[in-house]
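Onboarding guide, step 5: your first structure request.
Type a short instruction followed by the sequence, for example:

Predict the 3D structure of this protein.
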Amino acid sequence: MANRLAQETSPYLLQHKDNPVDWYPWGEEALERARTEDRPILLSVGYSACHWCHVMERESFEDEATAQLMNEHFVNVKVDREERPDIDSIYMSAVQAMTRHGGWPMTVFMTPDGAPFYGGTYFPPVPSRGMPSFKQLLLSLADAYENRRGEVLESAGSIREYLQSATGASAPRTGLSGELLDNASASLLGQLDNRFGGFDGAPKFPQTMNLEVLLRHYARTGDRAARAGVEHTCRQMANGGIYDQLGGGFARYSVDEYWLVPHFEKMLYDNALLARLYLEVYQATGDDFFRRIAEETLDYVARDMTDPEGGFYSAEDADSEGEEGKFYVWTPEEIEGALEPDEAKLATRFWDVTGRGNFEGKNILNVPRPPEAVATEFGIPAEELWQRIVHIREKLYAEREKRVRPGRDEKVLAAWNGLMLRAFALAARVLDREDYRGIAEKNASFLLEKLKVNGRLRRSYKDGRARFNGYLEDYACVADGLVELYEATFETRWLSEAGALADAINELFWDAEGGVFYDTAADHEELVTRPRDVYDNASPSGNSVAVDVLLRLSVLLEREDYRERAEAVLEDLSGAIARIPGAFGRLLSALDFHLSTPYEVALIGGPDAPDTKTLLNAVYSAYLPNKVVAGRAEDDEEAARLVPLLADRPMREGKATAYVCVNYACQRPTTDPEELKRQLGIS
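The system replies with structure tokens like these:
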């Protein structure tokens, strides 16, 4: 018989609907039962693509004896961390404080009023590596709550105090200066792995936002070491097993230091951030390798991760048929069975496929040798090698499609969609791809029509239901994507909607007394503490994106109040940035924009006219991160009213005309793309 989770929309919660555990979703019903029956709460948090979440379910939550203990002694609550980042953030902080580490599945035991008194991550079914079995833990904690209540409440009280005092980052302010940026970049450069790329050792995450900090450092200072480090990292990742060599898109991280063996799950936010980074590296270098990786990543999302209505799905699992990575790995025999003999010989050499294998006796496709070396080995030109590889890849991809695919989490999350919207919108402009523009516009319409309810943004959408109040990151990321889409299309609707979301950010999430943004709205349900996560981890924090988008909108809309609020957050976090710059990648990019004198580019001309596109291609022909771009047809008065930058700017001689302003000073209007490049400092 299914439990209460059968009524949920989250794929992760639905995975547990047939467990013998009497699961509740997070909500008043579960909390009230805990209070009424004076039972502790067992909170289990995970997500659908989490490998060890699946393992713990098989070992413990599907086990009748374990479920009986859980049901007898606890009120059991299951949470999808992607739907409820507030719950995840609060209790992950508690687990990290108690154990000095964290991760998922997360297991927390707490009092009926939500104060945690014990926590951890995965617990095995039998004692292992110094850990008790999960059943031993259940019995021990049930006994403690029943017979040593004072100790439990004392522990819960101290953790509650810690959570309430540890909200956000705290360090003495240092002030905002170029020195802060330079020191942060120097710190990140010192952490680069010059051999394999990336930062630090295994496990190795892409750390996309920190790479963008270094790319901005190069743009600001001309430091070629920073650019070289970013190029090397991006090339190593794209040639490694962390990148899907057949289907495009990146796995979440590499378990080794050289990007070979991934944790095979694919997350939407990773691919959004990485697609954008590769676009920017392409702009900075002009190297078509980086363009190809950006396009293949976006094409993967368009093909495999897009809802017919226009939303982007959240994730693909690491596992298929109960085995991690089974969908992606190959044996030499499988390669030979799918290809002609000469093709198989080339493919196994190019992607390093051997009889010994590189992953549990099979092979993760990767490109360890320069293609030019492989071409020389086979006595063919490099161009011909790549033509053959493209043909071979199509055949292997078709063969792989016959396999059982990993599970897909088809819920649509506002924040992650905002990140991917931003990537598609930028790609539409940088690559002049109308198909990407169409995908971005369809996604933006979907978000505004399906996830905006009674003027408020919702967090999650699935099966026709928009659920959960939006968090700061949802409002900020969607607004950010809409600003990028405006710059790609010059349709005022997108900019107006972004401004409305910015106003909502200031109204719902700002704490005037503390001078900070909180993650939850002022009218959100009361939790053990009001979360404020300021760190940029795998995805950017709501605070960082809010600061960034407010700064850009302050220039486009001439809203000084937006700039002042963004600056207040930057000043509040300046000391923390100085202390641990690696935790503030996106915020450092916002600071770089704030301290710069951004180019303000106004284009007057028909949005789809060839001469307008020629000027736009000039603007986006190089990496120029600190700019805003606005445009309108000459007779579009609505746009001129919305964007002061566009007012009183006529076309010259009936041609599309560009106006470039910097620091309240405007240069001569131009219709010449080469002159426009000169004004923008593009060589």
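Each response can be followed by summary notes, for example: The longest helix spans residues 560-579.
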